[in-house]
Amino acid sequence: MNLSLSHLILNASVMVQLVMLVLLAASVSSWFVIFRKRGYLRELRRNADRFENSFWSGGRLTDIYEGLRRRGDGDIGLEGLFRAGYEEFSRARNDGRTAAPEIVAAVQRAIRVAQVREVDRLESGLAYLATIGSTSPYIGLFGTVWGIMNAFIGLGNVKQATIALVAPGIAEALVATAMGLFAAIPAVIAYNTFTNLVERIESRFHAFSEEFIGIVDRGVQSGAQGGKG
Length: 229
Hints:
With 229 residues, this protein is mainly α. The chain contains seven helices and no strands. The longest helix is centred in the last third of the chain and has 60 residues, at 163-222.
């Protein structure tokens, strides 16, 4: 009696094979999201560390902004928040607005919009991983129940039931459960890990936003032209 994994999959019922195919697709797609998300968060944290070192080194805001433009940076992460805030600050000064509350409010709005955009990027894919992690075991369980049901129905058509008759059906059914867990466990681990990282990055966004707005406020109040106050 051949109970190898490949034999069980190839000889499973059509419904169980469909369940296995769905779980395989879910597993492959979740790993794709995991690797892509991992690379994005790693790049974001590396850029954030580099930008904060540059930002708090004592240079002028204008120099930092021009440096980002020359390198082609400033589209994501803390750099994106800084760029949005600085461009709004420059626009307000060029428009002749000098009232500190008006300029600070405009910078706050620009940074808030940029922060919402960055948070959306950070959280993209997390809902999908949560869905895979929560539904895959149930999909696998459905395949298991279906396979066991077929195995017992087959027993009703024979006069003498033996382990040899029922074992292949039960074994192929349990493969569906195993595949469900194989798809779910990495997705759940990745979801929890990424959620923790995203929360920490969001805290850095919020802290930087508050610091930058404070710098702008002090600069406007003291009449500084592009300095850090």
